[in-house]
């Protein structure tokens, strides 16, 4: 079976992520979207919340499976018996970082290949960080994320503000 992993923090999932998921899913038998608990970042959404959002927005793509993971990506690929990593590239700065990661992963496990999909130009500027910042300022994020995600973002921002005001 041709199985690939598209890893990321997806905090939150954007239309750019969904574009890569849909395009990658057409090229493999099974695409596992690996939701990373990244210790270097403080996420707005828990891993469980991100998994649920991704499951909801990918429910119509039959060969996509959402799986949380912790630790090294190469170990996760071994756990799920996948030999390919899918990464999206927005700009040349993404390429420099992603190339380093691909080479490191390949060095750690020569059986692992990384394929890069260039982001649709419509989403080339888009990032989860940008979406969260727009939401923090109570602006409309619906052009950037699915409707359900926009609603969850709004709820999360309201909760965060309430907790801050109670302190």
UniProtKB/TrEMBL annotation:
Decide whether keyword Glycoprotein is in the record.
Answer: no
Query: Pathway of this protein?
Result: Cofactor biosynthesis; coenzyme A biosynthesis; CoA from (R)-pantothenate: step 4/5
Record's SUPFAM superfamilies? Nucleotidylyl transferase
Q: Where does substrate bind?
A: 9, 41, 73, 87
Which Gene3D superfamilies does its entry note?
HUPs
Record InterPro entries:
Cyt_trans-like (IPR004821), PPAT (IPR001980), Rossmann-like_a/b/a_fold (IPR014729)
Q: Which domain of life is it from?
A: Bacteria
**Main localisation:** cytoplasm
Q: Record keywords: Metal-binding included?
A: no
- Enzyme Commission no: 2.7.7.3
Kindly name one Pfam family recorded for this protein: CTP_transf_like
* CDD domains named among the record's database cross-references: PPAT
Q: Which PANTHER family does the entry mention? A: PHOSPHOPANTETHEINE ADENYLYLTRANSFERASE
Q: What does this protein do?
A: Reversibly transfers an adenylyl group from ATP to 4'-phosphopantetheine, yielding dephospho-CoA (dPCoA) and pyrophosphate.
NCBIfam families xrefs: coaD_prev_kdtB (TIGR01510), cyt_tran_rel (TIGR00125)
Subunit note: Homohexamer.
- What is the similarity comment for this entry? Belongs to the bacterial CoaD family.
Q: What is this protein called?
A: Phosphopantetheine adenylyltransferase
* The gene coding this protein: coaD
